[in-house]
């Protein structure tokens, strides 16, 4: 979970945790997200995921107020393809996103996920390599990701 022992990185908009007992990366974001700050955090998370062969990710965006368009463009065009090249170990990936309470931040996140993960799926079939669900509550997301 989110404890000081699991905290491995922090900056002005992110706290990153690695829960070794469940092999989960947790990204907790807050306030207004800018590209440079987000890039730093997501690349640190990628380093940790590669090091520990993490298949389970939680992105807690409940406290985000605003997300820059530049960040979403970078995430879709650069981070996601780069992560696929680096995280080549076997296993189904699970991702949980806790949506922001702010409408525009929530819509922005959903749009970004749809541009990446959903485009890779085959119509009428579940993606056998990736499962992604949205949540409004961290505990519910954590329970799902650790029990699946």
Brief characterization of the structure:
By secondary structure, this protein is α/β, with parallel strands linked by helices. Helix content is 41%, strand content 30%. The radius of gyration is 14 Å and the shape is globular.
Order of the strands making up the biggest sheet: 1-2-3-4-5-6
CATH class: Alpha Beta
State the CATH superfamily name.
Answer: STAS domain
Strand element count: 6
- Main sheet properties: 6 strands, mixed
Helix content: 40-55%
Provide the CATH architecture: 2-Layer Sandwich
Name the beta content range: 25-35%
Kindly give the count of domains: 1
The helix-strand sequence is: EEEHEHEHEH
Assign the structural class, choosing from mainly alpha, mainly beta, alpha/beta, alpha+beta, or little secondary structure.
Answer: alpha/beta
Parts with pLDDT < 50 across at least 5 consecutive residues:
119-125
Globally, the shape reads globular
Descriptive report:
By secondary structure, the protein is α/β, with parallel strands linked by helices. It has a single domain (7-147), classed as Transcription Regulator spoIIAA, CATH 3.30.750.24. 41% of the residues lie in helices and 30% in strands. It is built from 4 helices and 6 strands; from the N terminus they run E-E-E-H-E-H-E-H-E-H. The chain has helices at 35-52, 69-86, 103-116, 138-147, and strands spanning 7-10, 14-19, 24-33, 56-67, 93-98, 130-135. The chain has a 6-stranded mixed beta sheet, with helices on both faces. Strand 5, helix 3 (103-116) and strand 6 form a beta-alpha-beta unit. Helix 1 runs parallel beside helix 2 and helix 2 runs parallel beside helix 3. The longest helix has 18 residues, at 35-52. It is globular.
């Amino acid at each position: 979970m989110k404890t000081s022992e699991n905290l491995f990185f922090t900056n002005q908009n992110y706290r990153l945790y690695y829960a070794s007992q469940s092999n989960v990366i947790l990204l907790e974001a807050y306030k207004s997200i800018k590209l440079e700050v987000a890039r730093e955090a997501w690349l640190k998370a990628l380093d940790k995921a590669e090091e520990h062969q993490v298949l389970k990710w939680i992105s807690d965006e409940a406290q985000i107020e605003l997300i820059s368009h530049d960040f979403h463009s970078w995430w879709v065009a650069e981070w996601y393809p780069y992560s696929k090249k680096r995280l080549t170990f076997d296993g189904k990936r699970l991702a949980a996103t806790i949506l922001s309470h702010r409408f525009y931040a929530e819509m922005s996140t959903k749009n970004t996920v749809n541009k990446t993960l959903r485009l890779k799926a085959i119509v009428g079939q579940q993606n056998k390599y990736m499962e992604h669900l949205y949540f409004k509550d961290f505990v519910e997301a954590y329970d799902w990701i650790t029990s699946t």
